[in-house]
Amino acid sequence: MLNYIKSECYRVVNNMWVYATAGVLSILVLLLNLILYLFLNNTIDFPYGTTSYSFSNIVAQPMVYCYMAFIIAAILYEGEKRYGSKKNSIAYGISRTKIFAGKCIVSLFTSLAILFVVMAVYIVSAIVLLERKGPVEVSDMLMEVPAVSLIAVSALILGIVVLEYFDKSIAGMILWFFIFTAIPKSLFYIGIKVDSLMKIALWLPENFFTAEMTVNMSQCAAIWDTPAGMAKCLISGVAGIVIFSMAGVAILRKKEI
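The structure assignment produced for this chain is given below.
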């Protein structure tokens, strides 16, 4: 499997879409801060030209990390069936399970590299261009990363599972969206009437990121600010990693037969 991981790393390093993704995301966050800077310097009493407002766009939306994890998985492996690269790996005697594990590892390191670049551009440009005031600080944005990281990894793993299983990528994308967003939201709304379901629903990231934190222009109360909230994020992430990994191995083994 080590040779497979090495070959995948080589493919990622030579994949222009990886660099394009990092570049586009970096340009977007830089453009956001530049627009706020221009309004700050050309509009009287402009309230949004602060680092707090800029950072709040990410801190208030932790699920963005999960969506980006899936997008990166899709960028790396969505077109694999068309080019037949997986068939070549299987022909060399590498099992689907090992291919799955290798893809998860390579995708994780690719995601971390892109995250490091984009976060650096985001934070530096905000500090240089905008007024440093408001409730949301750099520390809130930095603490969000470890809090959301395991949940994002579980989203990445699920993304690879559905992309591996379905012959049509659009079907995998739809299923991923339902598992990570639509089903949790449905459980939450049903849980308003059924208390037992609400307890389950509030352990799903889509729900507790919305219901158990408040981030706006006047306050920053993120769920990871408390030990119990941080623990909830980490436990939820670990559970997702275990469940989706086990499901992936079981599904792909059956498909291999």
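Interim note for the steering committee: The chain has a mean pLDDT of 89. The longest strand covers residues 214-215.
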